């Protein structure tokens, strides 16, 4: 591979990783002059990539959508996610790789031609069910992914459970998938503190085209914020499964579903289970490792409701 070809590919990779690059910064990253960057941009344009440019002190380059979809440079993780994702989608489920899948989606949305974007917009409701069914909007998710990547402020239209719609101006930090839900970890400008929002409760996301300096959000703070948000939902029944298994083995067996598990001595684990109905508790208990003894602690009235729910299931099996 000639140096110029390798350099052009490196330039393309940079353009795909950020929405806008100042020309001097590109030159510094590639170890060349601004003039050489300009020449390599021309080479990429000749290959079909639409690259916009701005002049002036803050001038630079950005990758734009063109009339056709050009080849994309994908990381190894993203390429693997595409291959696995297609197989799992065909089987009707996708449990892992969500972060990399969102990274691929952000790259595609950045360069997708308008005619293909319209087709995606028309097909998405048919693939995800009836509009307004409470699922996450792919457009909202993509806008947030781009804002996190490019460190750009956004305005959120947030609908809390049981409350009036709120408008928040935030600096997005990261998107985290937990238990089938997406959460946005961000710095709330009005409150001057970290906040977490469930993405399926965002009615709209408006990019403000204003950058911000990155802040450090400790990973443990993300878990803490998400745990708080998850307690806001309707939860009228609470139970604890006391499992005859050390907490280390229990956590390894259930992975992300083991959230909230604590040690009850060296050989037992206490795992909180709850929800809005006895069926939710039954569903949670179904995740316990097969063959492992356990007992359930819950209020007498809730215990009776759970017993009735399980008896209905057993009766249905005998019909």
Automatic annotation (TrEMBL):
Record bears the keyword rRNA-binding: no
Family matches, as PROSITE patterns: HTH_DEOR_1, HTH_DEOR_2, WYL
Keyword Glycoprotein belongs to the record: no
Originating species: Glycomyces algeriensis
Official protein name in the record: DNA-binding transcriptional regulator
Keyword set, alphabetical order: DNA-binding, Transcription, Transcription regulation
Record PANTHER family: PROTEIN PAFB, PTHR34580
Residues covered by the HTH deoR-type domain: 4-63
GO molecular function (one): DNA-binding transcription factor activity
InterPro entries: CBASS_pafABC_assoc_protein (IPR051534), DeoR_HTH (IPR001034), HTH_11 (IPR013196), Tscrpt_reg_HTH_DeoR_CS (IPR018356), WH-like_DNA-bd_sf (IPR036388), WH_DNA-bd_sf (IPR036390), WYL_dom (IPR026881)
Top-rank taxon, per record: Bacteria
């Amino acid at each position: 591979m000639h140096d110029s070809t390798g350099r052009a590919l490196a330039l393309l990779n940079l353009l795909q990783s950020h929405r806008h690059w100042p020309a001097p910064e590109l030159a510094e990253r590639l170890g060349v002059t601004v003039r050489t960057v300009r020449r390599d941009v021309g080479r990429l344009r000749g290959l079909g990539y639409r690259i916009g440019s701005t002049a002036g002190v803050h001038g630079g380059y950005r990758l734009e959508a063109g009339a056709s979809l050009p080849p994309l440079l994908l990381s190894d993780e993203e390429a693997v996610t595409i291959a696995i994702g297609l197989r799992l989608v065909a089987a009707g489920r996708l449990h892992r790789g969500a972060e990399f899948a969102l990274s691929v989606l952000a790259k595609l949305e950045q360069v997708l031609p308008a005619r293909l974007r319209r087709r995606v917009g028309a097909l998405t409701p048919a693939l995800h069910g009836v509009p307004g069914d409470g699922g996450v909007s792919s457009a909202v998710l993509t806008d947030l992914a781009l804002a996190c990547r490019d460190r750009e402020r956004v305005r959120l239209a947030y609908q809390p459970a049981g409350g009036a719609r709120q408008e928040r101006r935030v600096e997005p930090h990261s998107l985290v998938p937990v238990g089938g839900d997406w959460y946005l970890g961000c710095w709330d400008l009005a409150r001057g503190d970290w906040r977490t929002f469930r993405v399926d409760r965002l009615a709209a996301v408006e990019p403000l085209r204003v950058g911000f300096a990155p802040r450090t959000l400790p990973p443990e703070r993300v878990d803490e914020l998400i745990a708080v948000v998850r307690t806001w939902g309707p939860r009228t029944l609470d139970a604890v499964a006391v499992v005859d298994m050390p907490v280390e083995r229990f956590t390894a067996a259930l992975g992300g579903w083991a959230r909230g598990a604590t040690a009850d001595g060296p050989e037992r684990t206490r795992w909180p289970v709850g929800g809005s109905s006895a069926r939710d508790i039954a569903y949670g208990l179904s995740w316990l490792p097969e063959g492992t003894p356990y007992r359930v602690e819950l209020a007498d009235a809730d215990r009776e409701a759970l017993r009735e729910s399980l008896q209905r299931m057993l009766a249905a099996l005998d019909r």
